[in-house]
Amino acid sequence: MDPALLRRAKQEYRAQRGKLVNPRFINIVDFRKSIFQERLFVYNFISQIVVLSSRMAHGLQSRLLYPTEFSNVNGSERGCTGTFLTDKAAYSGRFEHALRMDDITEESNANVRTRANVFHANSEFYTYSVGYPMTNKAVNNQLIPLIQTPRFCSTPGNTGCSINCSTASRASSPLPNRPRLPNARRTRPPAISRFCSTRAF
Predict the structure, then answer these.
(1) Element holding 49 (H helix, E strand)
(2) What does the DSSP 8-state code read for residue 189?
(3) Rounded CA separation 167/148 (Å)
(4) Going by C-beta distance under 8 Å and a sequence separation of 6 or more, which residues neighbour residue 180?
(5) CA 166, CA 24: separation in Å to the nearest integer?
(6) Which residues, at least 6 apart from 201, have a Cβ–Cβ distance to it below 8 Å?
(7) Could you tell me whether strands 120-121 and 96-98 are parallel, antiparallel, or unpaired per DSSP bridges?
(8) 51-105: per-residue pLDDT in tens?
(9) Of 12, 14, 115, 136, which sits 20 to 30 A from 179 (CA to CA)?
(10) What ranges does the record give for the region Disordered, renumbered to this chain (predicted)?
(11) Beta strand 120-121 with 134-135: parallel, antiparallel or unpaired?
(12) How many helices (H) and strands (E) does the chain have?
């Protein structure tokens, strides 16, 4: 994970610290990485290690390999960026096990709740969603217990990342032969100072 992105996520985390019931984890999505790279990271703020990393879908209309177009508009089939607060409990709905989010950065994600933009899985996992942060089922089953009750989530700005924090608050044609994405892997990386950046922030 890019150290500059992690520093930015920590700044957002500290700004929202008073709203967090369980301040242990930060969920960071780096949309500067391609759809075939691991770009979702769950960071343990206490032990300062990444405990989960995975590939993740992006919105069908946000472009193909790299999402470059984001939207706050319902029906756009594009994801949104900024900082979010995850809900305190998961629910079962259209996508089975899912987790709602609320906005913090209103200019970029004020409609995230009304758009029903939720963390969810797709058992027939493809690389594109209609704007939701989607993983495969195995990843989703690991991810949601970590980032609910409540925690912090972020996809910073137009550079494309996402920071999710939990609180007590409550189309283009797809690519052919889209691969299934593998399960997330739990990692214990080296010290933060030794993380390598793959792209400029």
Answers:
(1) strand 49-54
(2) -
(3) 8
(4) 125, 126, 136
(5) 9
(6) 2, 4, 5, 8, 159
(7) unpaired
(8) 999 988 877 767 677 877 777 777 776 777 778 887 777 878 776 788 887 777 6
(9) 115
(10) 169-189
(11) parallel
(12) 4, 13
